[in-house]
Amino acid sequence: MKTLYKLLLNLVFFLSCVTVNSQKDSLSNVALDDLSLQDLLDMKIVSASGTAELWIDAPLSSSIVTKEEIRRANCTSIMEALRLVPGVVVREQSNGNYDIYIRGMANVPPNGSFDIVSTTTLVMIDNRPIYSYLRGGTFWETLPVDINDVEKIEVVRGPAGALYGPNAINGVINIITRKLEKKGVYAVANSQAGSNHTFITNGSVGYKGGKWSTILSGNFQHRDRSQTSWFEYWRNREIQDPSYMVDMAGDTVTDVSSRFPDASLAMEKSAGNIFVNYEPGKNVRLDLRAGLQQSTAQKVSVENEITPLSTSSSNTHYFDLAAEVKGFKAQLSQNSGVQNIDFAPGNKYDFSTFQANLEYAWSRKNLIIRPGFGFRKAVYDDTRYSDTANHTGIFNAKGSLSTHSAFLRAEYKMLNNRLRLVSGLGATKFDVPDTIYASYEFAATYKPSASQLFRLVYSMTPRSSNIYDTYVNQDLSFFPIAYQKYLAIRLQGNDNLKLFTAKMFEAGYRAMFGKGWNFDIELFDVKGKNENVLLSTVPVVRINGADTILTMPLLATNLPMRICQQGITASLNYTNRTLQVKTYATLQRTTLKDYEELNYSILPGQPLDLNSAKGKSVKHKATPGLFGGASINYLLTPKFNLNLAAYYSGGFTYSHLSKTIFNDGRGVDQVDSKLLVNFTLSYEAVKGLNFFCSGKNLMNEYSREFYHTDKVPVRFMAGFNYELKK
Fold first, then answer.
1. Strand pairing of 547-558 and 579-593?
2. Count of CB atoms within 10 A of residue 442's CB?
3. 3-state SS, residue 661
């Protein structure tokens, strides 16, 4: 399979370099002065309402980053490109691996495990969710597409379940892939290399005839870490080349080489995709997308009880079929494969997720109504890789989760189209828990002129259940506590949890003014409830011969805690024919109400009093209070382009599960504020061929960005971008 990936990648790359004719697609890779100011300001966004509309008209807080902005800033991945978007926190864990979420709610509740990092942001590719139902969130390294495939990235901030179903708690990141708009041959290539043995190659070739168009793409990345040591919880320090490690229970772990087979590797991934479009007539469109990927990464993904970084691998494939026929929209997609979330025995599983959506748009004058239905099913099975009798796997079962959804979206315009009312109502029937949850969204926009928009939004979205909390059945530890008396601790699932939900009220204002200026500001108030963690319950006693075994289940349990977050995001941009300037920042505060710090050192039979903190309010310090960025793109000459980009993240305090286990000062990491400054200088040697060099973290703020993960050094990259043009 690995050989197949390399052959596919080499073929695509070779064809892209030798093809001599192409046709550029919309807003293609051209010099800044080839784009009119109106083109730059009139980019359309789909994700904010489900239909294409001008950015200034979008009813929700939303942003777009285009493939041109990604190329000019030399973002080496889709993940890094999200640093160009307002309201998104992007923190590097190891070279190319990031913790990414919109606005906040990270490390909630504090003193939790790494299994529940960044579960509140829904990521999609062409409206296809790539949400992991193991514990929630996104395995970013498993994305089959890369920067060469991206037309634009649309980001919607705030609960958006009425549009996209469960899991869009803090917002949606929708990666829109390229489509051929004009007839002819298409080819794009990107290749670069640099610090930490980083090698990145992307290639795409395609052709559009009459009614058909096809793109074949491939991508490859290899990245080494900036260090080869690991932070160990037990010894509370970096360990270099260990022959053994110690877990949080004080047990010696000797299989270090099998858990971390390549200490220097941060990420290696390869993927191939095919995109086929068929348009037989007006208002009829069919899109077929399919691909496969394999990846290995050292990142923060699961709780291995030894160190923050785990080695994970994935081998997956997908298909996605979308159709539009005279007001009807339908989409079928499936993603499946095998994943190993930690190279320890029993952490491997097969999975398959399937989704189907059907929607119809009915319109009359100023009224549009869109009813629709959706179905999702996730199946995770680790029985092939575990001893189910002795509970050596994660859940030792074939677990499934299904959801059935019905929704109704509507919008109405009045006052000569100045006032627009947008609403969405959804009902989702979960099989686990066996209940129905509502989602809703009510938005109103008022446009006093063509260049100004005021908006108000009120919305609510639930998060779906996950496989781990529902089906986990794992023996955690077994040890003597007295003569012929033993304590067994077992992780146990709960299929009757209340689902986490978030409500938001938001007010915003957008404007375009002067020659090339645009401004956007939003104030938001988000409240979440029904978070859950694993907590001890009443022990069960059983007799085994002369031995007494006390089994203490750790059961997924809802907390009475409420999460309250208020903040403001603002951006100010300027564009003319040779200069683009973008600035954006988010200032926010997160508070936990009715929260008592969890204490995992309690004795069996002494459960926590979850209501002991009723009325108590504490500031949550794990989300930066201030973060944002800026970029300047300047066309020095018709051939030379200079891009400067900065990203700032305020300091934060991350509290890990080990804090309450050790109860001696370990388990807390204060991560300092950080300003990353990057530059890219590119030169167009011939039409469509750009050579570039770039520097990352030029101020050499050599510090980590996440809980005891790798430090981020200065990095340099060099390479070329190539797009065939007539």
1. unpaired
2. 16
3. helix
Task: Say what the pLDDT of residue 118 is.
Answer: 75
The DSSP code for 281 is E
Is 166 within 8 Å of 176 (Cβ atoms)?
Answer: no
Instruction: Tell how many helices (H) and how many strands (E) occur in the chain.
Output: 8, 46
Q: Are strands 547-558 and 485-492 parallel, antiparallel or unpaired?
A: parallel
Per-residue burial over 283-310, b if 16 or more Cβ lie within 10 Å, else e, is eebbbebbbbbbbbbbbbbbbbbbbbbb
Beta carbons of 464 and 430 less than 8 angstroms apart: yes
Low-confidence ranges of the chain (pLDDT < 70): 1-43, 47, 49, 116-117, 598-608, 726
> Rounded to whole angstroms, how far apart are CA atoms 631 and 647?
9
pLDDT in tens, 49-103: 677 778 788 888 999 999 999 999 999 999 999 999 999 999 999 999 999 999 8
Contact 584, 558 (CB under 8 A): no
pLDDT in the model for residue 373 = 96
In this structure, the number of other CB atoms found within 10 A of the CB of residue 615 comes to: 6
Single-letter amino acid code for the residue at 267: M
Query: What's the CA gap between 696 and 98, in Å, rounded?
Result: 15
Give the closest residue to 616 by CA, choosing from 597, 596, 598, 594: 594
Query: What is the CB-side half-sphere exposure of residue 591 using CA atoms within 13 A?
Result: 12
Residue 29 and residue 84: Cα distance in Å, rounded?
A: 18
100-156 confidence digits (pLDDT tens):
999 878 888 888 888 766 788 999 999 999 999 999 989 999 999 999 999 999 999
393 and 410 Cβ atoms separated by less than 8 Å: no
